[in-house]
Amino acid sequence: MIRVLGIDPGLAQTGWGIVDYADCRYTHVCHGVIQTSSDADLSKRLESIYKEFEKILNIYKPAEAGIESIFFARNVLSAIPVAHAKGVIHLLCAQKNISAAEYTPLQIKQSIVGSGRAEKKQVQSLVKLLLKLEKIPEPDHASDALAAAICHCNNRGFINVK
To answer: Burial level of 136, CB count in 10 A (0-12/13-18/19+)?
Structure first.
């Protein structure tokens, strides 16, 4: 069995999800969202993400991580804060010796649904089905993080995790 952390990075909300994977089966462990206040300065927000993720990693001890990459370039100003949050997440993974790989939203959709043009609801419904959950995981960022974890499970034999 391998324990995989999925991450949907963001400065305001960072989704996370933990999945155990063995014999081509997924088991949901937990999921959630780390929120930061827009009233706080950037340094404090990043520190908050760092501290909360460190707690999660210390409790659940994942071996690998699948991180949704920044794919949008329409608004550079919105991409930069996400990149800051991603940097904190990669730093923590390195400090905890967790192998991490990044996947574009297209790759995640293809891995979960079979189509890179899948709608968000389709992905969420299949995450629910694959993890045998009673309802779609909420909030959306947590569901996206679980999708990233499942994508990593599906692709881990084909990539070099770093």
So the answer is: middle
CA nearest to 4, candidates 103, 114, 83, 71: 103
Cβ proximity of 72 and 15 under 8 Å: no
Region of residue 130 (phi > 0: left; psi between -120 and 50: alpha; otherwise: beta):
alpha
- How far are the Cα atoms of 67, 77, 102 from residue 64, in angstroms, in the given order? 10, 30, 11
pLDDT of 51 above 50: yes
For residue 159, is pLDDT > 70? no
Are β-strands 2-8 and 25-35 bridged in parallel, bridged antiparallel, or unpaired?
unpaired
Residue 125 has pLDDT above 60, yes or no: yes
Cα separation, 100 vs 162, in Å, equals 5
Spell out the domains of the chain, with CATH numbers in brackets: 2-155 (3.30.420.10)
Give every CB contact of residue 77 below 8 A, 6+ residues apart in sequence.
Answer: none
